[in-house]
Design goal:
75% of the residues lie in helices and 0% in strands. Helix 2 runs antiparallel to helix 3. The chain has 274 residues and is mainly alpha-helical.
């Protein structure tokens, strides 16, 4: 393991530890105010964005090998899943929760506002951390003016399709593992995340999270703001909702079919005879 990777791993561990301490403190301090869920959303999304910035730097500037990058992506996803304390950290996922009426419309909008505020805060905080010069990688990145090039390496329709497919796959995994015990579920979802990053990372970076993309991708040169909106905002939202609506429809059809199979022999379908 190189010194740069060791420093980055230490920084990631520090971010998670500090975020977890802050999350616990705010949850305790705001327990009786109803604001703790928004504080947790802010801190957790900030944690997600800061860690992703560092992993992105390791991969794109540090040039670590693909196997190590995917391993770190998987481990980071597991850690986020285990420490988020009910936070969603993804506007698309928040809208899915609102669609299923697990969240009210107002609560969902406030959570999304917290997610984008945390994404903007991480976007501003990460260069400050890099500016300390903890590793040679950070120093080189600072000397280059924290330059970032667009991760979109395909025509816009293809890039949009990749982000849509990534969001579809991750949302499908989340939907179909909800009944699984949490300590096992996070590993299943993390494995899917690592897989879609491997499949689509070379095309768009495989972000599939509008708030995270706002923090890590929108500052990069090479594409316009509207192009980033299409690829990193609209496409993940469509991918998530297609997954939700498709599998809701399949479950509904399966229930209807199961009910019809359970009818006693000779029983007529009242809908057909009405």
């Amino acid at each position: 393991m190189t010194a740069d990777v060791a420093v980055s791993l230490s920084l990631l561990a520090g971010i998670v530890a500090l975020s977890d301490a802050t999350r616990r403190s705010l949850s305790w301090a705001l327990a009786d105010t109803g604001l703790s869920v928004y504080a947790v959303e802010l801190v957790s999304t900030f944690q997600l964005c800061c860690c992703t910035h560092e992993l992105k730097l390791l991969s794109e500037v540090g040039g670590i090998e693909t196997r190590l990058a995917l391993t770190l992506t998987y481990l980071a996803s597991v850690v986020h899943g285990l420490t988020f304390s009910g936070a969603i950290g993804n506007p698309s996922g928040t809208l899915e929760q609102a669609y299923r009426t697990r969240l009210s419309g107002g609560c969902a909008l406030r959570r999304i506002a917290c997610q984008f505020a945390a994404a903007a805060a991480a976007k501003a905080a990460v260069p400050v951390m890099w500016g300390i010069g903890l590793s040679g990688l950070h120093v080189r990145h600072k000397l280059n003016g924290y330059r970032c090039m667009s991760p979109i390496h395909a025509p816009l329709p293809e890039a949009a399709a990749v982000e849509l497919a990534c969001a579809f796959a991750v949302q499908t995994a989340i939907t179909h593992t909800r009944s699984v015990e949490e300590k096992y579920r996070v590993h299943a979802v993390a494995a899917v995340i690592a897989t879609v990053v491997y499949a689509g990372g070379s095309v768009t970076g495989a972000v599939f999270n509008p708030a995270l993309a706002f923090s890590t991708q929108f500052r990069c040169s090479g594409n316009s703001f509207l192009e980033y909106c299409l690829v990193y905002w609209l496409s993940p939202l469509l991918g998530t909702m297609i997954s939700v609506l498709l599998f809701d429809k399949l479950v509904s059809l399966r229930s209807i079919k199961s009910s019809s199979l359970r009818l006693p022999p000779g029983t007529k379908d009242t809908k057909k005879t009405a």
